[in-house]
């Protein structure tokens, strides 16, 4: 591949993805980024507590818990005639979450206790410049407010133990005790200053409030390094949270690109996929079902017609895929080595870790052909445990045909992941074709 083989459009799409990720260091920031783009495109916010007044051709979005969002466009045709095309992805990424009372002084250093969220590659968090991002509940004069915060400058660090004290680290791998060895160093302890105040001070300064008005928080350690292009032809990208903000960005870009679809189109971006999805804001909760019921209510569909509507619908679960790594060929199924920059990946698993079946795989192949992009197929090694996605969860709860797809990537669940420039454009094109329909 040469630099000339990558179009200006593909590079622009990849750069927009990196900008999106860098502005979205937590699920709450990701949803705020999505909402801002939707509002700029004329989508109307629908609070769940309000009665909804929907219109044919209308463009809407709903947010739950600040970390999950569903956007939809009512198509020109009644949904009972066409079904609803849905794309799902998730806003969360594995990493280190700050505990509710995290700060302690240990031998002259202030450090913050963390919980491991999901299944991150813990070793990749060591010796990185880390910031903090998430939401803080702040006491105001009349109420309690949820405020976003992003401390983007290096604030925290997890220094490695020198090899002189860990002689076998290169043979045995870098390992951390999650309770005693993962706390993040914040700074030198100060006589007369409680460690809790040392922790609260930068948050309060960033939010412009008094430290005592910070009630509680949901915060994650985040990388301070921005996304970048790399490779001899700059054909790859690197950033945090490619899994799965790349799929969120592709789905949102596709929805924004299809302005007046024939069919009703819906994009659902859920929190908590990395920890099982069983929450009010997760794919295992009621959010997507609630939105579909309210859409059905607008069209006065009774229970029988709602079942007919779902039977005509189609769900695309978009989550990243494992690209073949030339340094570790033994980790892959021999006939399913998917390549970076070779197109969207259809993911299959006989034990239903993915929702794909032969029919839905063929449907997505046809969508890729319609979009003029290549596609690939992936199956996990039989002797390795296979991860899962929101696909089986949503398909089971709604009873609709579903396919699991994703862009190929390296170093999934690292704090610094890699993927292909071309693949992101391919995924946007495929998802746009799916929403446009026939």
Which terms would index this structure?
Aminopeptidase i, Domain 2, 9-stranded mixed sheet, 5-stranded mixed sheet, 11 helices, 27% strand, globular
How would you sum up this structure, described in words?
The structure is a single chain. The chain has 438 residues and is of the alpha/beta class. The chain folds into two domains: 3-93 and 240-436, Zn peptidases (Aminopeptidase), CATH 3.40.630; 95-223, Aminopeptidase i, Domain 2 (Roll). The chain is built from eleven helices and 20 strands. It has helices at 8-22, 27-40, 79-82, 169-172, 195-207, 242-257, 287-298, 303-311, 358-371, 391-398, 421-436; strands at residues 44-45, 59-64, 68-73, 84-90, 95-106, 109-117, 130-139, 144-156, 184-188, 214-223, 228-230, 236-239, 264-270, 314-318, 321-322, 345-347, 376-378, 402-406, 408-410, 417-420. The strands form four sheets. Strands 1-2-3-13-4-14-18-16-17 form a nine-stranded mixed sheet, with helices on both faces. The chain has a five-stranded mixed sheet with strand order 11-12-20-19-15. A three-stranded antiparallel sheet has the order 5-6-9. α9 (358-371) crosses α11. The chain is globular. The model has no long low-confidence stretch (mean pLDDT 96).
* Tally of structural domains: 2
CATH architecture of the largest domain, by name, is: 3-Layer(aba) Sandwich
What is the number of helices?
A: 11
Given as residue ranges, the uncertain stretches (5+ residues, pLDDT < 50) are: none
Strand content: 25-35%
- CATH class division of the largest domain: Alpha Beta
Query: Residue share in helices?
Result: 25-40%
> What summary fits the major beta sheet?
9 strands, mixed
Structural class from helices and strands?
alpha/beta
The CATH H-level homologous superfamily of the largest domain: Zn peptidases
Please report the distance between the alpha carbons of the first and last residues: 33 Å
Radius of gyration: 22 Å
| Average pLDDT over all residues | 96
* Backbone shape: globular
What is the β-strand count? 20
- According to CATH, the fold-level topology of the largest domain is Aminopeptidase
Strand order of the largest sheet: 1-2-3-13-4-14-18-16-17
